[in-house]
Amino acid sequence: MADAPLLVGYWRSSAAYRVRIAVNLKGLTPRHAAVHLRKGEQRGADHLGLNPSGLVPVWQEEGFSLAQSLAIIEYLDETWPEPPLLPAAPRDRAVAREIALTVACDIHPLGNLRVLDKLTADWGAGAPARAAWARHWIGTGFTAIEARLAHSAGRYAVGDTPSLADICLVPQVYNARRFELDLTPYPMIRAADEAARAHPAFAAAAPEAQADAE
Q1: Furthest C-alpha separation in the chain
Q2: Which of 21, 101, 182, 190 has the highest count of CB atoms within 10 angstroms of its CB?
Q3: Which residues form the GST C-terminal domain (predicted)?
Q4: What is the mean pLDDT of each run of 10 residues along the chain (214 residues)?
Q5: Residues in CB range of 3: below 8 A, 6 or more apart
Q6: Model pTM score
Q7: How many CA atoms lie within 13 Å of 15's alpha carbon, on the beta-carbon side?
Q8: Residue 41 carries which DSSP code?
């Protein structure tokens, strides 16, 4: 019998957090392995053999390896279709993707560890400047998402069922709190985040619940 799939991540990686939520919503039980980003283990030969980008997460099965959180989540949704991670209606699916991509493409890359480290290396940005940079870009993205949620939200970000939108939004709210962004201007985001974090699949995926949490 083949080994269970392996999910390689890091407890505080928001991209890995997304995949953990998706895995839990699907009821899957992969093996887990941790790569310590702060210690630079992602730049080691073993990890680069899995993902030449030197990032997490990585999903690995026998004869197959996949990086990029949204690609992994889409693969999981196509391979294990129940419960679906996108709404049934085409317009709702498009909105869920829009919210997810606003997080994954517009917000997250600018607060990624390697970007923050580059700010420090090239411009001497210390911890306060790094945090201010992250708050700026999270806030910019959250302003757009908040406006969208005014039309799409039910109990969750898009309607009354957790979707790809929540899978991406909740880890980004976690990062917002970590960088001490004032969330007062975003009541719709706060409500969707609170509802999602109460769901067992989200709770089990939380960074502090992971074996490698520090």
Answers
A1: 52
A2: 21
A3: 89-214
A4: 88 98 98 95 92 95 95 98 98 98 98 96 97 98 98 98 98 98 98 98 98 96
A5: 31, 62
A6: 0.96
A7: 24
A8: G
